[in-house]
Amino acid sequence: MKCRLWLIALGMMSSHAAFSQAEIAPWGNVTGVRIEGQLFPFETRLILLDNNQHMTATGKELQRPVYKRTGNEQVVATALQHIDLKERLIASTTNTAALNVFAVAKEAQTAQGLYLAVKVPGNAQLSVNGKTVAAVNEPVRDLGFKSGNQVVKLEFSTPLTLKPYGNELLVPVHTGNFEKGDTASLQFTFTVNGKADKSPVALTVNAAAAGRVFDGFGGNFRLQNPATDPQVIDYCLENMRVAWGRVEMPWRFWQRNITDQPLDSAKAGRLHPAVKAAMEMAQRLYKKGMPVILSAWSAPAWAVVGEPKFQPGPDGVWGNPLNAAHTNEIYRSIADYISCLQTIYGVEAGYFSFNESDLGINIRQTPEEHAALIKGLGACLQQRGLKTKLLLGDNSDATTWSFLDVALNDPATYPYIGAVSFHSWRGWEKSTLEKWAGAAQKTGKPLIVGEGSIDAQAWGYPAIFEEPVYALEEINLYVRLLNICQPASILQWQLTADYSPLAGGGIFGDQRPLQPTQRFWNLKQLAATPAGLQALQAASSRQDVSIAALGNKEKKQLMIHLVNNGAARKAVLNGLPAYVKELGVTVTSQQQAMKTKKTIPVHNGVASLDLESCAFITLAGE
């Protein structure tokens, strides 16, 4: 079965290779065209302007779009207020593409107009209808702008009146108000030309600067899809080294009423099916030698203030605070669950958290409440003889790092903290990620990325999971996290059918045979990192080439992960430890699934290599 799935994956990835590389985000914004692997930006968005100049625009996490690809055609369906929108990006085999926009008003809509906004670089040289201009002051049939070595040209079927809007030009789809049932459309082609930058990159490793240990790649196993989860879980656990695991604690099904005695019920074999399945999942991971994290997404009604919320309310606020009047009962209930898991299922849970309590998914805490929980629940677990520690944070994003401050500044929390955790959906700037590395250093605890991936709404347009651009961006983030944060593990969200790294098998309605995607091979390649390697200082001379290095001086092991986000280029790698005489090379890209390449010799700590375009490259030396 493994061999058959490998062949299917190679055929699937190769099938996209002949198409042009025009790219559109799943929310409908064109991002640019790749030429020899390098993304040349051509950025658009759809804007609805009302008569008071208030603007609504398409963007990430702003709407609920649907995304699909058929061959070289990508389609996005979305909406701005009462206007339903459909965009079709049709890429040719060159650097030219056609974009069609169709709008229909489901209700009357007061508006100045609906526009396609085209971003124009500030230093761009403009041309209109073949003439160089300082500004756009006439109806436009073709529009061009040149910036650096990049030239963009748009061609419209009929002359259109464009209007400036900040650093954008607004191309009208419809002007004025919409009546219910009104339709409007826009069609044009765009061409992007430029010379790909293939200049060499200098890569450096400082093997003497060893940091924290990377245990290995991990995964989330929150069970949500009983029909399709098992096959994905089985495949991932059988075909990938998974070092850490995170499972749900279905607390609201564990103790529905405050007077219930759930531990007694469990000993009598009366477990809710969701609880039983979650505990068995934890048992399976624990038997494979993984540290296991328990996270509670929601609480029984008696444990929170107000009616339990599973969506934000009208005020936009998520979740419910814990009911302080029942603090002792809350601690006892959680401790009973952990005790049950240990005595009945043989699982000693390493860590506990409330999932994303900074935001309220679905239990909401203040920083003060979070610190108090760590001390109070931590002491309760210790008194019960349970070794489970609390996660500091387990935040929704890296951006909310200030949520840790109260606990970080209270040394009384430290004995009960097992690790620092954040989720990687947002906040990828180096300065932000360094805050989390600093928190781990201050507490002396490991750092984990409790949920790893790049788009928290991708479940709504799952076809994006098979796009090479998604796979590349995801693994690029992971390499940066390894280098900047030095985590003990990055736990993929998820290694189940939700955000699945596999396709087919009925997942998201896909009836093809079950098959690994490019994302799966990226994750498997990262997961092949041997256990116990320490993060080493590493740097790249180019922003579009990411690097992370890990090594073990005693075992004489070295592994370097690289992501080339641009065109093929040469690289020189300096600073390799003396024990490394050659480097094995493994590459995953749109066309290759963990392909082994020719071994690279190392002379006096220096190696020269060719970086393939848009590729995840791993170098291994022993």
UniProtKB/TrEMBL annotation:
Record InterPro entries: GH, Glyco_hydro_b
Originating species: Chitinophaga terrae
Segments crossing the lipid bilayer: none
Entry keywords, A to Z: Signal
Residues annotated as signal peptide: 1-17
SUPFAM superfamilies from the UniProt entry: (Trans)glycosidases
Top-rank lineage group of the source organism: Bacteria
Protein name per its UniProtKB record: O-Glycosyl hydrolase
